[in-house]
Amino acid sequence: MRVLIFDTETTGLPKNYKAPLSQWPHIVQLSYLIYDLDKKYIVTIQDHIVKLPEGVTISEDSINIHGITNEKAESEGIDIKEALLRLSICLDDVQMIVAHNLSFDKNMVQAACLRADYVNILKTKPFIEYCTMRHAIDLCNIEIISKRTNKPVKKWPKLIELYDFLFKETPNHLHDSLIDILVCLRCFYKMTTGQDMVQTDSHYKEILYKHTL
């Protein structure tokens, strides 16, 4: 089986998560990789800065998080239609999609498809889905006080919290979607196989630590 791990960086967060997708923010970075679970190797890694439509800008808060400025998006970005086309080609080759907070990244891709007048490329076939965040809720068991009920609840772990729980390491440079997919892959593999890819795949280890140390 081949899995696609993907992540997006955006112009901001939705002001209303129940708002129509046409009102959602725009993608400024789209990264994904394909991993072959049977042959145990990375098939491809893709990382795209995305050029924004005229009149759309990145919020200062988001720039402070992921470091992609409006100038960088303009000078280095590719058209969102091209980015989606490349992603759709890779999706043809996989059976499972994986992300940390999968529903958010799925909505971001769907919103981009809607604006590009594309079909939703994540619904072209029945993908198996795995969200590392949701599968980590009981695993990490991090309690917070609910603002709504004022009672303890288990929080949705951040990717860095899950990674630290599983590996007792803190990766650098998160909120670069390329780094996030490399980190997410290691978490996914550990959660589903019980094995640490750093111990079993020297090529992956080299790529991971090149970007996160």
What does the model show?
The chain has 213 residues and is an alpha/beta fold. The chain has a single domain (2-212), classed as Ribonuclease H-like superfamily/Ribonuclease H (Nucleotidyltransferase, domain 5), CATH 3.30.420. 42% of the residues lie in helices and 20% in strands. The protein has helices at 60-66, 70-76, 80-91, 102-116, 132-135, 137-140, 159-167, 177-193, 197-200, 202-212, and strands at residues 2-10, 27-36, 41-49, 96-99, 128-131, 143-145, 152-154. The strands form two sheets. A five-stranded mixed beta sheet has the order 3-2-1-4-5, with helices on both faces. The protein has a two-stranded antiparallel ribbon with strand order 6-7. Helix 7 packs across helix 8.
Question: What would the keywords be for this entry?
Answer:
213 residues; five-stranded mixed sheet; two-stranded antiparallel ribbon; 7 strands; globular; exonuclease
User: How many domains make up the 3D coordinates?
Assistant: 1
CATH H-tier superfamily: Ribonuclease H-like superfamily/Ribonuclease H
The CATH class assignment is Alpha Beta
Counting H and I runs of at least 4 residues, what is the number of helices? 10
User: CATH topology, what is it called?
Assistant: Nucleotidyltransferase, domain 5
Following the backbone from N to C, one meets helices and strands in this order, namely: EEEHHHEHEHHEEHHHH
Give me the side-by-side strand order of the main sheet.
3-2-1-4-5
Using the CA coordinates, give the radius of gyration: 17 Å
Are there runs of 5+ residues with pLDDT below 50, and where?
none
Protein name: Exonuclease domain-containing protein
Keywords: Exonuclease, Hydrolase, Nuclease
GO molecular function: 3'-5' exonuclease activity; nucleic acid binding
Organism: viral metagenome
